[in-house]
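Whether sequence alone determines local backbone shape is best considered at the level of individual chains. When preparing material for the folding task, we compiled for one chain both its residues and its backbone structure tokens. The sequence in question and its structure tokens are set out directly beneath this paragraph.
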Amino acid sequence: MKHTILLFFLFIFSISSYGQEFVTGTIITQRYDTIKNVTIEAVSNAKSLLHLTYIDAEGIVQKPDIESIKCYTRGNENFTRIYNSGEMILVKQITAGKKLNLYERAYNGLTTYYVEKVFDEIVKVPSSESKFSRVLSDYLSDAPEVAKKIKSKELVDLKEIVALYNNG
């Protein structure tokens, strides 16, 4: 009897540990095909940039090549492909602003941020303090007050910088 109970709890534990959470979303392929109302597996942000698993309208599990995906939403999260240093990479959009967007890419244990002026170039945010203030103040020089605060290191929080730029 103890053996049966032990096997039962082991079985329940194994099922619960492999349980997957799925969230409703929309996928746009590189061919601009739109796949609506799918349930997308909720995995970590790092894995979300490398793999995509979803259940289609017929209830079939799909695992497309991540390179075939232009962008996708999963609940309130938006993952999109950007062009950086000669290659297209998948990133998570942190802020979608009127003037400035903020993206994040968590990969191999490192988190990299990118800022993009709407309909303009994308800049990789440097991780070193000295380059951070110089690059961002130059990039956002069309907002002199924000650029001045970045250069003087009064502003160092990236989300705050993006919010101030978008509100200015």
